[in-house]
Each structure stands twice: as structure tokens, then as C-alpha cells.
Amino acid sequence: MDEDTSLTAVEVAELLKITKNTVYVLVKRGEIAAYKVGKKLRIDKKDVQEYITNQKNTNNNQNSYSKTITKDNVFEPENKIDEKDIIISGQDVIIDILANSLASKTNDIRILQSKLGSYLSLYELYNDRVSIASAHLWDGDTNEYNTAYVRKLLPGISCNIINLCYRTQGFYVAKGNPKNIKTWSDLLKKDISMINREKGSGTRILLDEKLRLHNTSRQYIKGYNIEKTTHLSVASSIARGEGDVGIGIEKVALQVSGVEFIPLQIERYDLIIKRSDLIYPVYQRIIKIIQSQEFKDVLEGLGGYDLKDIGKILAQT
């Protein structure tokens, strides 16, 4: 890492595989040193490296805290949930805010995070390796979000599906949309190259379901196998000209200069909790946080979310 180079908040977010808003939170809390050049925030690479080192050195801290679990270790058999851990899985900044809020109100339980996509989050919930999952998985046969997947991936387990927000999914294209990309069928054009999301993410499943319904083979899409692990990294790749189109949420497009957003579909983003866990006070506390005006006010301040059903139980399985 070149220690003489400074980074923008967007670049740090891409490097750490977190959202831009989470970078601002880390700076505000003093966990990453930063400074301003004019009105622009800048962070030295050496300070990012120091943050990473500090995170590695705090693994033995037994107080209540929020920590990220990487994809590399979340699947290990020994990572079954400890009775003093709550692991919330999801990639949106809403999950960061929820985990931090819960940690501030909880003294005897560690609050951890897993940055897995929707499909793997439900899989890990079934295998008792996360406590709570979040999902935005579209089923093309029912034109519904999440319920069908919860029933299939958590067979025999009754769950509450609680709404967090609605978001707009669409195409990230270069400013001015020079390739005139507007519909799913445009992905098949020979002069169009895409940047995809990883398997298991809600965005990838949305694309694959659309292809299935249109009886279209993915092999005809140039760049289908080029994967990025966040909406931000997809949008940034399009801004750099690495591809002509990517798929993600509108909120992230607003954070990346050089990218235009083409809306396609409103998606539902939900939290999935096993109903058997609702007897425990910490899970009741989580629901109270989501349903609180304070939590809603924070999300409204971020923008980009439709919160009309936040905290409502939209389905039970």
C-alpha cells in the first residue's frame, strides 16, 4: 500500500467493502483519521491500513461491540453462534446502523455483523451461523420478494419477515447513457459489456430470474462472469469505464460521479427473524429499534429509502 496516497470516501469504501456512509460513521467516531481539502474528505492510505490493523487487534474484546465477519470464516463449523453473540447478516448500511444501535443498548451480548448477500444470509440462518438475516430476493413466478425463498431455504422453521425499506433497483450506466441501455434485453447487445454482482446477492438473483423468465441464456451476455461484491464497487467500475452497465440500487448511484441511473424495479428489503427466537429480550429489543421513530429518522436523513412499511411484519412462514 502506497502510504503517500490519499483516498476519497468512495475509494475507502470500495477498499474495505463497506458503504460510503459507513466510512463517514467511522471517521466521525474517530476510528479512521481523516482531513478535508476544501470541502472534500480525504483519508491517507496509511490510516486505512492502521484501521485494518486495529480491527485485527480487537478480536479479544469481550464488551458489547459491532464487528464484521468475513466471507472466509463465516462458513467454518466452529462458527456456530455463541449464546452471547447476535450476528446480523446483510450488506446495506441499514444493517450497520441497526447493529450499532443495538450494541449501544446491550451490555451483556456481543453484536456482530456478517456482510453476506441475501441468499447466503438465509442459508446461514438455517444453519445457525447467523442470528438474523436480511434479504431482497425476487421470485419471478410470484412477483414477490423474500417469502418464497424463506420457505425454501428455512424448511420447517417459522419466521417473521419484517420490512426495513423499499429500494429502487436499476442500471448503472455512464453519464448520458451513450449505449442507450434501457431494458433487460439491451444486455444481449454485442457491443454491451456488463459488470455483475456475486452469486447469492439479491441483485444477481434478480438478473438471473429475469433471464429465466425471458428464456435467455446468460452465455450471451458479455461480462456476465465479471463479479463485484457491492453496489458501490459495481457503480465505481462503470464510472471508470470497465463496463457499460451494472445493476444496483439508486442510492449508491447518487454517491458516484460519472454514473447515471436507469430505474427498473422497486424491491423490498426485509429482516428475517426465527419466531422461536422472539422469546428472548434481545430480539424484542431489535424489533423495538426498527419500529422506533428515532431509527426511522436516521434512515430518512440518509435518503434513498421508502420507509412506508418499516417495522411491519409483512409475512410469516
Automatic annotation (TrEMBL):
Pfam families: HTH_17, PBP_like
Matching InterPro entries: DNA-bd_dom_put_sf, HTH_17, PBP_domain, SinI_DNA-bd
Residue stretches making up the Helix-turn-helix domain: 7-55
Domain PBP positions: 100-291
One term of GO molecular function: DNA binding
NCBIfam families: excise (TIGR01764)
Protein name as it appears in the record: Thiosulfate transporter subunit
Organism whose genome encodes this protein: Clostridium vincentii
